[in-house]
Amino acid sequence: MTDIDAVRLDKLDKLDERSWQQRYQRSLMGVFGDPQELLVTGRGAWVSDSQGRQLLDMLGGIAVNALGHAHPRIVEALTQQAQTLGHVSNLFTSVPQMRLAEMLLNAAEAPEGSTVFFANSGSEANEAALKAVLRHREATGKSRILALENGFHGRTLGALSLTHKPAFRDPFGDLIGGIEFLAPNDTAALEAAFEDDDVAGLFCEPIQGEAGVQPLDDAYLARARELTRSHDALLVFDEVQTGIGRTGQWFRFQGVDADVTPDLMTLAKGLGSGVPIGALLAFGQTASTLLGAGQHGTTFGGNPLAALAGQTTLETIQSEGLLENARRVGAHIASALAGVEAVAEVRQYGLHIGIDLDPSSSSAASPAKSLVTIARENHHMIINATGDHTLRLAPPLNLTTDEADIFLARFTAALKDLPR
Ligand SMILES: *Cc1c(COP(=O)(O)O)cnc(C)c1O
User: Fold this and answer.
1) Which domain of life is it from (predicted)?
2) CB distance 154 to ligand 1 below 6 Å
3) Looking at the structure, do residues 346 and 272 belong to the same domain, yes or no?
4) Domain count, the chain
5) Residues 214, 230: one domain?
6) Cβ(407) – ligand 1 distance below 6 Å
7) For all residues of the chain together, what is the average pLDDT?
8) 81 and 193 share a domain?
9) Do 354 and 291 lie in a common domain?
């Protein structure tokens, strides 16, 4: 041991005297604003916080904790893998990496010739997809790429270029050129955009998550599939939030009442049950070879530890019947919420649930944001607001009916605490 204590362990040990809020503000960049709480432990759909409270977690780390907190199978798999082989670089491969790729291709019913690229996050999966679309744009001489208003694809520069929200983009000046935004579900605008035969690709979330669980219509998605196919454009589904069982299907596109199998699909959030991992699926031989040898890469992507987290997540969703559970428990929540007076609309796809509050039900400037605080402080429950009147739920896929009933009781009680 060196005698110079550069990280100041002696001093850090005394920092306990400060509040966690002070420690956070003095050491973490302010991009997220102040955290709501300091969380300490978790088990299933429950987390305990710095005050020792048990909170019902109906957000699941924003659709990430597909199996809840500390699922025994994830704990066991990661412990074993950490003892065996944690990281190998992409100059080598590992069994978990290949096995997870095979499982994803099977779950997606991908045709012969389909392949997977592993990344570490949703943004990075979308970066890879965008680079593939840029390769197609180069090869075809087309100039435009389409994405949708209210969509969200991430914060890295490529993913941000595909994200419409001005508050996210404008601070950074020029982003990647040639990307245009269309109004979601506007079929006439979509058809008009393809008239010039100049579109290289279309990016969309089949259900817009950050927009408050807003679905694209089946007919709109079917038309998008037809137009992209007939105009030699790539259809890219960002299923970072909707994938891995969230909507009660392995992937949302499989729940659409038409064959809308995309050319490219991105995944992340629920894939690793909390371990960072993202993936790009390329459907068929042509999509699979858009990015050639040396044209993309990553240090960590698909390492054995992250890949085993993914593998164990998919195995557990299957063996515990969690697609069915997500559909059943989600429908139970939605039907109960439909009878709640302050609730104007519920959009429910498995355990991906958007709730619009009736604007006349409260005098608060942002009833949804007020309700997040009331729910946590008075009713010990984590929920999420995506707008002033819109809430989003994305609890673990193994949420039980009893836990759903606890949520419903606490939610209706929280609504009564909103200022009239
Ligand atoms: C969260 C999200 C992303 C970004 O994922 P990160 O892991 O935060 O980079 C991209 N697309 C969608 C639809 C998302 O919900």
Assistant:
1) Bacteria
2) yes
3) no
4) 2
5) yes
6) no
7) 97
8) yes
9) no
Give first-to-last CA distance, the chain, whole Å.
Answer: 62
The number of residues making up the chain comes to 420
Domain holding 350: CATH number?
3.90.1150.10
How many angstroms does the Cα of residue 232 sit away from the middle of ligand 1?
A: 27
Please, are residues 272 and 279 in contact by the beta-carbon 8 Å criterion?
A: no
| 330 plus 271 within the same structural domain | no
Q: Are residues 308 and 335 in the same domain?
A: no
Print the domain residue range for 326: 25-57+322-416
Q: What is the pLDDT of residue 260?
A: 98
Cβ proximity of 240 and 232 under 8 Å: no
In 127-232 the beta strands, taken as DSSP E runs, fall at 144-148, 179-182, 199-204, 207-208, 214-215
Query: 3-state class of 388 per DSSP?
Result: coil
pTM of the model: 0.97
Q: Looking up tokens 């960072």, which residue turns up?
A: 276
Tell me the pLDDT band of 181, cut-offs 50, 70 and 90.
very high
Q: What is the CA radius of gyration of the chain?
A: 22
Cβ atoms of 279 and 132 closer than 8 Å: no
Task: Check pocket membership of 241 for ligand 1, CB cut-off 6 A.
Answer: yes
Tell me which of 269, 275, 384, 386 to substitute to probe ligand 1's pocket, judged by most ligand atoms within 8 Å of the beta carbon: 269
Gap from CA of 246 to ligand 1 centroid (Å):
14
